Amino acid sequence: MFTGIVEEIGTVAELNPSDSTGGTSLTITLPPTSSLLSDAHQGDSIAVNGVCLTVTSFDPRPDQGGPLFTVGIAPETLRLTNLGSLAAGARVNLERAVRADTRMGGHFVQGHVDTTATVVARAPDGNALTLRLAPARRDVLRYVVYKGFVALDGASLTVTRVNDEEGWWEVMLIAYTQERIVTAAKAVGDTVNVEVDMTAKYVEKSLQGYLAGLGEGE
User: Topology of 115-203 in CATH?
Assistant: First the structure.
């Protein structure tokens, strides 16, 4: 479980499509002063651009240019996210899984990406930045509501506008947020990983079961 509050920005060192296990792995370097790996263990979960991934190895070597860690990427993850398009030098949002004593500053984020979305417009609004996004799967729009939450590349953001007919929603990034997440640098045509509010999914399924039960009683 994550909060959608990005802790640090890392840099992709390598995306290896054929590692020693025969799968895909991603290695990320951190700033020399980073403490992200201070309590790390193999098997821990770290969200990389909003995708919950398992740490397979790590090296906290701050004296050799900065700590680094490697995560494995499953085929299903490659199909549903944009991680497979990352190249060396790309910057990524990072967040460690929360602990029981962690303050929940954002919203409940699982790190299970639903789809990607394309930036179709960006516009300044004072010192804030508005991004308009069109999802690859339009059916996720039913979970996106005005003033609700959505996680974009792992960052918890508030929805400021939704247009179901045209198939887009907007979020606004304040100046503070722009400096701390990679999403603010996305240009028109770039993609982001999207995770909708999971509460909406549970409500939908429960309601479907309830309505089905009413039908059986007729």
Answer: Elongation Factor Tu (Ef-tu); domain 3 (2.40.30)
